Amino acid sequence: MPVGLFRVCLLVITAIVNHPLFFPKENGTVPENTEEIIQKMKEREESLRLEQLRLEQEIADQEATQKALEKAAVVVEESKEEKVRWDMWTALSMVIFLLIELWRQDFQEGNWQDIGGEEDDMAVLGKAFKGVAFPDKAVLASFYEKRILGTTGDMARMREMVEGFADDLLEALRSVCNRDADMEVEDCMGVGSMYENWRVRKPFVCDLIVPFAPPEPYCFRCQTWCSGDSFPPDEQGYGTIKVCRADEDATGCICDKTKLGEDMLCLLHSQVSSARPSSEMEDLLCFKNTQYLDADQVMKWFQIAVTKAWNRISHKYEFDLSFSLLDSPGALKIKFKSGKSIAFNLTPVVQYENSDVYFISHFPRSSLAADIPSSTHWFLTFAVYERRFIQLVSKTLPANACHVSCLQILSFLHGKQCSLTGPSGLTNYHLKTVLLHLLQARPSQDWAPEKLEARLQDMLKFLEKCLHEKKLYHFFIGNGKVPAELSFPIIFQRAEPLNLFRPFVLRRDIYRKMVDTFHEMLRNMSALINEYTVHIPLAHTNGIRKE
């Protein structure tokens, strides 16, 4: 109770003390400045309102910027997702395309020679044959007997004579050469149509290749387009030949592959050895300042060597020997006093490793190597294997098989047409390649002599398809079905197929001329054959008939 009274008294005292009447008079000025204070408060309120508006505008701008960034991020994310989807479709399309391409190549490698064996495929072809009268069996047999068969004996006698003289000439060449400095020449080998017994057009020309090797202690190291190093597409089918010392590392020193500074020396090779390519290498028929064998230098050396060899043995013969073509080192011609002449080619080649594939400096009378990239690039010839393959297959064919007859007739027709309309890009080598493909594709019994007409049609239709597609693949390169008996190098079997018609893809004028020549040959075929055939009643001649 006393505590409560004390609290009441304290409250009363406090109220009395704080009553306004107890404050001094000077405090009475506050009501007089009220309007000024209100004005300042209004100004302050206005400034705060403006500041609030500014802050609200900044916040709005920040929100707009944030929304724009979020929108841009969304667009970027969507574009990324779209790009990912597009990349997925692109990758999927590329995978599908590669699978199709791989399947096509596998199918091509497995069946590229099977075109002649399918009647359905052959039915699609032959558009150029419409309206063309094709000679029948009787006309073809008569033509072959009257025009072609009688030349075989002349070919055999000429081969024997040329080979004997070439052996004597090469023996004399070895005697005039310096064994310590000049190239070493080996025995010659016969290749081509004369030695495969299908050449029909005169003048007969024997093709002989002569392998040569460098003197000791040097050796040739050959490199082909399919040996692993990158070669441009226009250099496929070519290779290079490097002249090295036998004890030199096959890979060579890095100083041969990079340009060292003037103040840098190779620790493995002295200044004497570094100067070797510019002097000693040129004596070894290399291109200037390199170690690569130069085909032009080889041509000059071979012509000089052959001339010296002939001067040594010319007294033994009653005929003259001369070079028939200036751009061919071994294009020789024998001239008898009676006025007759015999032409043959003696061409220097380099053996590829231990095989019968050879690097050849040039192709006589051929456009196969017309556009050689440089004189250090050598074309590869498989002529020895081609001859062996024909001999091997001939053993499995029926007696008097018609395979050689087909090639002879087609070669004759093509030669006659070129004499009328001028030469074209199509060569006898292309015709032989067609035959090689069909020999591998067709069973042995299909080459019986009575099937000459059908097989000749197959060759023409195969060639027509190749011309249409601009694709005629080399028989050996990329062909995994080469008989094992030939011991053919596996590196060429695993290589990409080489298209012999590739040079004509960009040269449309030559391609057009080649196609026109082929069509003209088809139209003139009956006339060309009948010109050299005894008269046979017209009833025996009919159009193309399927076998």
TrEMBL record:
Keyword annotations: Cell membrane, Coiled coil, Glycoprotein, Membrane, Nucleus, Signal, Transmembrane, Transmembrane helix
Cell inner membrane is among the record's keywords: no
Gene3D superfamilies: 1.10.1410.40, 3.30.460.90
Entry coiled-coil feature ranges: 38-72
Gene Ontology cellular-component annotations: nuclear outer membrane; plasma membrane
Subcellular location field: Cell membrane; Nucleus outer membrane
Signal sequence extent: 1-20
Highest taxon of source: Eukaryota
One protein family per Pfam: Mab-21_C
InterPro entries reported for this sequence: ITPRIP-like, Mab-21_HhH/H2TH-like, MAB21L/cGLR
GO terms, molecular function: protein kinase inhibitor activity
Keyword Signal tagged: yes
Membrane topology: Single-pass type I membrane protein
Main subcellular localisation: membrane
Family note: Belongs to the ITPRIP family.
UniProt name for this protein: Inositol 1,4,5-trisphosphate receptor-interacting protein
